[in-house]
Write a structure and sequence with these properties.
The chain is built from eleven helices and three strands. By secondary structure, it is mainly α.
């Protein structure tokens, strides 16, 4: 959803008419939101490791992913991990899928809004302790094929529309963060969807990893009495 690889664009022809039939487009985040100028926490992965360890890690990541980690050293490690994952994908499109769908809806003059705010996402990001993730990045540098396999498998499941196995894969990769990054957010997003004006039609775009599972958006809406029907084939 948040990438530019052509393989994630497969359902767009089905989605365009559904967006055009809607009154409101809801992205996972309001992409038109102007960020507040707030003080950001300072991060430094190079300061976490000894000089020789960091130099080796940097060299390994450059060799495996053609990515110079020093460019991202000041970012939260979750964003560094995202940059590493993105380096393995193709940049076939000018913008990511979520931005592409947002722009399409905006051109068709839908009311635009976000399911989460940028402030909420940034608050969550900066609440996550960096040290365990620094160690995880070091593991990636020594075993890059594990991440390549995970990324390839994720894209295959996305292209097949297998949201249930994609959820299982995403959940297993989150380890101790799954409650905060998946479960809690799913519950809050579902709560917000249930508060929407029932007289309007909404097109809501969220990452596929949020749909399935015990706290998933689909199950949450069904438990609240909504009828949920797949508009494109997906594995059950």
């Amino acid at each position: 959803m948040h990438i530019r690889d052509e393989r994630v664009y497969g359902y767009c022809d089905v989605l365009y008419p559904l967006i055009q039939q809607s009154d409101v487009y809801v992205g996972e985040m309001d992409l038109g939101e102007v960020p507040e100028h707030t003080e950001m926490p300072a991060y430094s992965m190079s300061a976490y490791f000894r000089n020789e360890v960091y130099a080796k890690l940097r060299n390994q990541l450059m060799k495996s992913f053609r990515l110079d980690i020093i460019r991202y050293d000041h970012l939260h490690p979750l964003m560094i991990m995202s940059a590493i994952s993105h380096s393995m994908l193709e940049n076939d499109r000018r913008v990511s899928l979520d931005e592409h769908l947002w722009n399409f809806a905006d051109r068709h003059q839908l009311t635009m809004r976000g399911l989460e705010t940028l402030k909420e996402q940034m608050t969550l990001l900066h609440s996550i302790a960096p040290d365990p993730l620094y160690r995880q990045i070091k593991e990636i540098s020594t075993s890059p094929e594990k991440l390549r396999k995970f990324t390839r498998h994720s894209l295959e499941l996305y292209a097949e529309g297998d949201i249930h196995r994609l959820y299982q894969l995403t959940k297993s990769s989150m380890h101790h963060l799954r409650k905060r990054i998946i479960y809690n957010r799913n519950l809050e997003m579902t709560k917000r969807m249930k508060s929407f004006d029932p007289s309007l039609t909404y097109f809501i775009a969220v990452g596929a990893g949020h749909l399935s599972g015990p706290t998933g958006i689909i199950g949450g809406l069904r438990a609240a009495g909504y009828k949920v029907k797949a508009m494109v084939p997906f594995s059950r």
